[in-house]
Amino acid sequence: MKQVVRVVLADDHEMVLQGVTAMLSQFPEDVEVLGMATNQLEALELTARLDPDVLLCDIRLGKDSGLDLCQQAKAANPALHVVFLTVYDDEQYLYQALRVDASGYILKRIDAVELVGHLRRVTTGEVVIDPSLAGRIAMSAARINAGEFWPGAHLGLTQRESEVLALLVSSHSNKGIAAKLIVSEDTVKTHIRGLYRKLGVSDRGSAIAVALREGLYQ
After folding, report:
1. Please, are residues 172 and 129 in contact by the beta-carbon 8 Å criterion?
2. pTM of structure
3. What is the mean pLDDT of residues 36-63?
4. What is the distance between the alpha carbons of residues 122 and 12, in angstroms, rounded to a whole number?
5. Residue 51 has what pLDDT?
6. pLDDT confidence tier of residue 140, bands split at 50, 70 and 90
7. Which domain does 120 fall in, by range?
8. Nearest-10 Cα torsion for 29, 34, 40, 42
């Protein structure tokens, strides 16, 4: 007999929670929704108390970050599978999800049968990616293999530090960068300190000057 996949849902929109629950309720022999959360704290409390197999959450949770939720939930329970169910059809968000050890990234236009299948697959150790994004991932991998890396890689910047630097050059505030990358402001500050150190500078203006002098961004 196949085991029922036990799921906690997290989304800041009540209608989405009700809709996904209704979708999954059609498959009681496959999936059981244990609880629903509308923010990060609720989701962490539910996953700790109910011990689900899967946390199915949006990558944005109002003022909270689904990426931070993923990191904290998996730190508390490494066996938990986190799957993002979102409207954000952007490979950069997918990369961010994979960096925090998510088990899947699925777009909300998915139908019920496919969603249930994906939830089953992640519990066996697979990583599931929405098909519409898979081709973009392949192209990115091909570019990397061809030697096309992100701006600033030759200066020792990580891809995330390069992304932060690009937003600095575009005059984004720390709060704006955090919103753009779906991380906390503290995380942004950590990345900024790292890129300052690698560029040999101590302030935002100097970092921007180095980026422009090196021709990193047009």
Report:
1. no
2. 0.69
3. 95
4. 23
5. 97
6. low
7. 5-139
8. 170
How far is it, in rounded angstroms, from Cα 79 to Cα 123? 9
Task: Return the CATH number at 175.
Answer: 1.10.10.10
> Which CATH number characterizes residue 135's domain?
3.40.50.2300
The count of structural domains within the chain is: 2
Residue 144 in any domain: the answer is: no
Give how far the C-alpha of residue 84 lies from the chain's centroid of Cα atoms, to the nearest Å: 7
Are 182 and 96 within 8 A, CB to CB?
A: yes
For β-strands 64-65 and 60-61, DSSP reports them as: antiparallel
pLDDT attached to residue 78: 95
**57, 63, 65, 68: CA torsion to nearest 10:** -120
Q: Mean of the per-residue pLDDT values for the chain?
A: 88
